[in-house]
Write a structure and sequence with these properties.
Layout: E1 6-12, H1 20-31, E2 35-41, H2 47-57, E3 60-63, E4 77-78, H3 80-85, E5 90-93, E6 99-102, H4 105-112, E7 122-126, H5 130-141, E8 146-151, H6 154-157, E9 168-173, E10 185-188, H7 205-209, E11 216-219, H8 226-233, E12 237-239, H9 242-257, H10 263-278
Helix pairs in contact: 1-9, 1-10, 4-5, 4-9, 9-10
């Protein structure tokens, strides 16, 4: 029997800059429930042992880099959307031991672009990990025409990405020379721009110079990265991952607790994020 206090957390390899505890604390206060939310850093070599322990201890968890695909092995029931994506970022542990896996990155990303019409457009994604998979499926549902994914190892990634039936998907080599002049939406799904790579860009100035004014540059990192700063200089729409973080976190909380996913919840979590960033 679990304690009456509910326990949640975020699981990843590096969580120093994570703002999930702050936004989930706001959700807990908003819902008026007794719960804790903590960070759980796990090294890749200790993942199997420690994730099993956490699944016994927690009522739910958010999964972040690099475990969104690795966690699938430990889940009894994978949601239809998460199965389509091939990655899980939200885990719910039910009484009786049923472990359910969901992907709320999809909702967070798709909803964050609700004011932009992407139908018939070309998109370029840098990186092909778990977050990129959710982005791919969301983009297909937003009716883009063509998605070009740029990765370091094409052979490793090409057969691991979700199958897209309603838009063209091309996987090509990531280098510092490819042309993005016809890209309407450029997405960074790599770690370049945060942590030890803060102050760096995944692309060169020359590549960014090819973007047309009014193009969208979206960095899944939720800070104002150098790439976003350079995009604004080129009169592009610059979007960071903060809204995606808040929205996916709100859906996670709703799945765990049954709390209605509404604007009041999202607003409280959004306010908590910006307060944490400003602190």
């Amino acid at each position: 029997m679990r304690d009456e206090i509910l326990n949640y957390g975020v699981v990843g390899a590096t969580l120093k800059h994570s703002k999930s505890p702050e936004i989930q604390a706001a959700a807990i206060a908003h819902a008026g429930i007794q719960a804790n939310y903590d960070k759980y850093e796990i090294t890749e070599e200790n993942f199997e042992t420690e994730i099993r322990q956490l699944l016994m201890k927690l009522n739910g968890m958010n999964i972040t880099i690099p475990y969104k695909e690795k966690i699938l092995k430990y889940i009894n029931k994978v949601d239809k959307l998460a199965k389509r994506i091939g990655a899980v970022n939200t885990v719910k542990v039910n009484r009786g031991g049923l472990i359910e896996g969901y992907n709320t990155d999809y909702f967070g990303f798709k909803e964050s672009l609700k004011d932009h019409d992407l139908k018939g457009k070309k998109v370029t994604i840098l990186g092909g990990g778990g977050a990129a998979k959710a982005v791919l499926v969301a983009l297909e549902d937003l009716e883009v025409e063509r998605i070009e994914v740029r990765v370091r190892n094409v052979d490793k990634v090409v057969n691991d990405l979700p199958r897209l039936d309603n838009c063209e998907l091309v996987v090509e080599l990531f280098n510092r020379e490819f042309d993005i002049s016809d890209t309407h939406l450029l997405i960074n799904a790599t770690p370049v721009g945060q942590g030890r790579l803060a102050g760096e860009m995944p692309l060169t100035d020359l590549q960014l110079n090819c973007l047309e004014e009014g193009s969208i540059v979206y960095d899944l990192i939720y800070s104002d990265t150098l790439m976003l700063q350079e995009a604004r200089k080129r009169k592009c729409h610059a979007i960071n991952g903060s809204e995606m973080l808040v929205l996916q976190g709100a859906e996670s909380f709703s799945l765990w607790t049954g709390t209605e996913l509404n604007e009041d919840l999202i607003t409280k979590m959004r306010e908590a994020f910006y307060s944490a960033v400003a602190a």
